[in-house]
User: Fold this.
Amino acid sequence: MARLTLIGSIFALLLAAPAFGSNIVVTLGLKTGGLTLQAPQAAAAAGKTIQVPLTIADARGSGAGWTLHLSSSKSVAITSITARCADGSTCTLPRSIGTASGATILRVAPDSGMGVMDLVVTVAPLAQSAGAVPLSFSVA
Assistant:
């Protein structure tokens, strides 16, 4: 019985020997991407607050920050912008720098706003006399 145990142990060691015989080298390369924005078609309306969901992906790997712009034919007021990491993403939430002015509604500080984020931009209602005003978002 001891002889069978000894033979079984030697056999097991011989099968495991190739695992100890060489090193396995794994090389990882990180590929950077770009700065992208996904935004639905949206329009500000008279007497109605709207919330526009945006998805911003900063895969540049530079940590340079970015700026969110809003273009519209009439002046609109942004009442809030909320951000969270997108599902399945590890992100660094954006930290705002400066104040919004003109077409610039959010300037993001360096070393923040990296990864994939879901933002919700809340637009104040327009005056009753105003018609619908299309909104166009961009990021740079």
